[in-house]
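Researcher: Last one for today. Full complex below.
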Amino acid sequence: MTLKSPTRRHLLRMTAGAALATPFLSIRAAAQTVNLSMLAWYGHAEPDIVGAFEEENNVKFTPKYYTGGDNMLGLIAQSPAGTYDVILSDAEYVQQLNAAGYIEPLDAADYAFDDFYPEFQKFPGHWQGDTLYSVITRFGFLGVAHNTDVLSEKDAASYAVFSDSRVTGKLGHFDWHLPNLGQMSLAAGNGSAYDIDEAGWDKVQEATMALRGQVGGFFDYGGTFSSLNDGQMLAFAGIGDWITGVLEKNGAKVRTTIPEEGGLQWTESFSIGKGTQNYDMARKWIQWITSAEGQAKSADMAAYPALIPNKKGWEVLNATNPAEAKRQNMVLGQYNAMDMIREGRIRYRQLPVQQSLEDWNDFWSDYKGA
Amino acid sequence: MTRPSLYSLTLALPLLIWQLAFFAVPLIFLIAISFWTVRNFQMMPDLNFGNWERILTRSVFWDAYLRTAILATTSAVLTSFIAFPAAYAISFKLSERVKQWLIFVLIIPFFTSYLVRIYALQVFLSDEGIINAALGMLGIGPFGMLNTTFGTLVGMVTLCLPLVILLQVFSLNFVNRDLVEAAHNLRCGRLRTVLAVIVPSARVGLVIAALFAFILSFGDFVSPLYLGGGNPPTLSILITDITKSGQQWPRAAVVALMMIGTLLSVAFAAITYAYKERGK
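Model: Here's the assembly. Have a good evening.
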């Protein structure tokens, strides 16, 4: 039997049939997988973190990554309600998210707060009265980031190292006023980094301006990594192990040291986006990432490492990844990161209390332009 | 002059709609936003002149404005001077075939990402980069090139050079070769011919090319940030900084409008000069 070439009519009929059938195929496939959209800093929806959860729960994460809380707020403001199912936010921004009506209230009983260290069971800013809006997931310290070939940990034991002659033209700033000015506030001797009066604010501005001649540049996320990694900058203000930890694990000679004047703490938490169509799965995700297993994974996240608030997470981390527990000072039974917090060496990073955010940012622009 | 027919108006309609939708309407919206107010980190429609007052009375704005204008002018002049010998050689000295190939080569950079090229330049310009390594072998350096104004200008020239060479080539192609021959017949040397005959003849194209370089450099964000270290900031960096003041998009809109106004003024002045007839 000879094969006939298809007639044009036959070909059109078959093509139309195939085209009409395709949506049904993809709808069938899509109906089985829940798509969870996540708004977060880079790395939170990468396979090393979400892979196991995605497989177990037949979920696919669609991330939208931002750099900075203002970027995050901008993205949410431009999107219709329900665009983002889960939102990772720095602590300072949770109140802003809530004020703007972007996040759902949560039921605290759904989450493993009893397993958390007491300091994190009712973290300021995540609650409004007794209503929970965001579950603390990870945190980290900001201090003096330095090139260990040129500056030792002893050199970096004070913010005064930023004025060192070895650092002239080689001091980098992560381009965000909040952590930088908070560090300068501690360096200037303010007991509280962000709740300072006019005299304290004047001291901050003076201490900051005095550094201007040392500055090599103001860098974004990528620029910070590359300039520390290739030795272009020898000391960096406004960052911590969340940057240097990644580089250190890849062999770079950098470290973050918490100086005597004190360090700052950044804190991340997950919220559920207002208008989400996937509330149950979003809640399940937050439950998992704050569970002991999820926390241990989160501590060693490839994009940037962090400390974790769940005590049971510390136990799992010590058992499964003792090297990372040691590197991050999360070893149980010895002086560790929690002791640093309890000794008062660490202050929470927060929005300025007695000055407006605009005042701080305007000064930061003046400093950059000086 | 004949009135345009319905047919020609209909053909022009898509372009008009495009211009309205993607230029005029966003511009009007930007002007409107510059008068809005931010409350609780959210923008609210308003008629608030405070944003304009706050930006225009701050010295950091005018410092950044002057700095950006000087950088853009330097970039335009530098690019034009670097481009001219190449454009002259392509237009006057090479065969048609080679000319076509070189024009094609000049278009290739537009297919690549500018950001990626700037990241690549970091490898060349850093203290332990390729250039300093090569100079080190000759016993000189290292020179600080990255995170400096020099780095910013290198980036801006990288951005503008292919376009400026192309525009200059097209402009030089239209210079009447008879005029060049006449100049030579009147015993004009090569350099004098270039300065006295070729450049004035190609003035329109040369000015437009420099204008494009100015426009691209004035608004550039990537080179000042990644090669200049954001140190000190240009107007483009100032815009992103202002939005970090708790979503201050209205004030950022003020800066953007000042930039647009400046570019329109410079473009108008440049085109007026370019088309000005001699003696008028």
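Chain B is about 75% helix and 0% strand. The beta strands of chain B are 37-39, 42-44.
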